[in-house]
User: Which sequence fits this backbone?
């Protein structure tokens, strides 16, 4: 359960540019830390080296102020570095979560659209079981296995027999007919013009009724 102050990945305003800026700041902090380590290296004491001599007096061979300042700054910058690394990790997590949510939503939308289309697809009344290459049917894009839901004025609601299609074809020679088929679960529309060609008939395909 989300509390009032929580944000979903979708509502978060984090962008990849924000992440790049955080990484740039991290790099700058690392450069500063390195520079202070170089100071300590030059003084020959490092982070833990003693600042007093064997008798307990402040060492006179090193710059004590510079060393203490460098050590203090390194400590502060390491805390800053830890904090910004946590910010980067959180920002990347948010971006990945948002992208995952978007992919899941896209899949869900596609499935919902497919289901809606399946529900609304008209029931076919005939099926194409042969198409001759170079025929009017082939040229229009008709394919074997296409399930016909519309052929000119013939549709699922008024289809009675193949004679209905034959009659439409005979009266539409040279005129484009609107043909609707179901192919791979989707409705496909095309224009088919019955006409004389080198083969038999005006279409060049074989259509069989679908048992209902």
Assistant:
């Amino acid at each position: 359960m989300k509390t009032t102050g929580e944000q979903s990945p979708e509502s978060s305003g984090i962008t990849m540019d924000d992440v790049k800026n955080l990484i740039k700041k991290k790099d700058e902090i690392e450069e500063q830390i390195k520079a202070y380590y170089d100071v300590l290296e030059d003084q020959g004491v490092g982070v833990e080296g003693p600042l007093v001599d064997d008798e307990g007096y402040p060492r006179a061979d090193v710059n004590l102020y510079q060393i203490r300042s460098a050590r203090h700054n390194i400590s502060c910058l390491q805390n800053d570095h830890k904090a910004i690394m946590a910010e980067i990790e959180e920002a990347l997590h948010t971006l990945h979560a948002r992208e995952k949510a978007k992919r899941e939503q896209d899949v869900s939308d596609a499935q919902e659209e497919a289901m809606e289309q399946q529900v609304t697809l008209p029931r076919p009344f005939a099926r194409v079981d042969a198409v001759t290459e170079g025929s009017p049917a082939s040229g229009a894009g008709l394919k074997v296995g296409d399930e016909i839901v519309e052929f000119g004025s013939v549709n699922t609601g008024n289809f009675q027999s193949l004679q209905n299609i034959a009659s439409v074809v005979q009266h539409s020679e040279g005129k484009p007919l609107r043909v609707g088929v179901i192919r791979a679960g989707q409705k496909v529309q095309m224009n088919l013009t019955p006409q004389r060609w080198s083969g038999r008939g005006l279409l060049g395909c074989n259509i069989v009724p679908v048992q209902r």
